[in-house]
Amino acid sequence: MSVFRPGLLPSLLVLLLFPGLIALGFWQLARAEEKRELLATHQARQAAAPISLAELERHPDPAYMRVQLQGHFDARHSLLLDNRIRDGKAGVEVLQPFYDQNSGLWLLLNRGWLPWPDRRVPPTFATPDSPLSLHAWIYVPLGEPLRLQQSAAATGWPRLVTAVEPDALWQQLGRGGLSHEVRLEPGPASFRADWPVVAMSPDKHLGYAVQWFALAAALLGLFIYLGLHNARETRHEPSHRPA
Where are the beta strands (DSSP E) in the chain? Predict the structure, then answer.
């Protein structure tokens, strides 16, 4: 007599769910390792001396590289990146074209976060009008940014946007510019410039991995218990054989 009888339906459910739970656990472990490497790269590059844009263009991986800029802002064509939250407060990030006179390139420079408590009143900010020497760093997103539907009436300046697309701006303005967003380091020309490197820490990914593996173990344990329990019930059923 069989000592393990889980039944057809539980067996099919385990065959469908168990590999998926294990795969999700290993995916979270891989994400945790990816975030650790990214944070290590960010820390190392933030500690390095800034380089010129000419040196940056020769670098195969520009993410988080610090750059030295010399030039001026274009105050007429400002972008306000919407739906930015700091300490539970709604606000925007202010991005403005900046002309680097050493390279002859335009950059879309993110000056940081400003609160926007009342959306009926446009946020106000000042732009330095004199030539500046600035330090900034290159931001490269991990994936495609979330794009919300833009308002058809959003044609004036400053323009409210939900995603940063430097190339689209340079094409509209007819200028040659860097394809990456550049984030200003804290200083006289910056607002609140404390961007998180990653949205989710490696430890949180590790916690999610443990949860997925725990669910897989619980599913397997329940399957084994059900199989053994059904087998015992079958053995204890009374026999109805004729005498």
Answer: 66-73, 79-86, 89-100, 105-115, 132-139, 159-161, 177-184
Report helix, strand or coil for 160: strand
Helix axes 202-235, 8-47, angle to 10 degrees: 170
Do residues 64 and 46 lie in contact, with contact meaning Cβ atoms separated by under 8 Å? yes
pTM (whole model) above 0.85:
no
Q: Taking Cα atoms as reference points, which of 203, 207, 199, 200 lies closest to residue 25?
A: 207
> Please, are residues 91 and 114 in contact by the beta-carbon 8 Å criterion?
yes
Based on the number of CB atoms within 10 Å of its own CB, is 2 exposed (0-12), middle (13-18) or buried (19 or more)?
exposed
- Report the DSSP pairing between strands 132-139 and 159-161: unpaired
The domain limits of the chain are 8-35+202-235, 49-184
Residue tagged 């991005």 (tokens): 95
Rg (CA), the chain: 28
In this predicted model, what pLDDT tens digit does every residue of 60-115 receive, in sequence order?
889 999 999 999 999 999 999 999 999 999 999 999 999 999 999 999 999 999 99
Q: What angle do CA 186, 116, 155 make, to 5 degrees?
A: 95
Distances from the Cα of 36 to the Cαs of 31, 62, 65, 93, in angstroms?
Answer: 9, 18, 17, 26
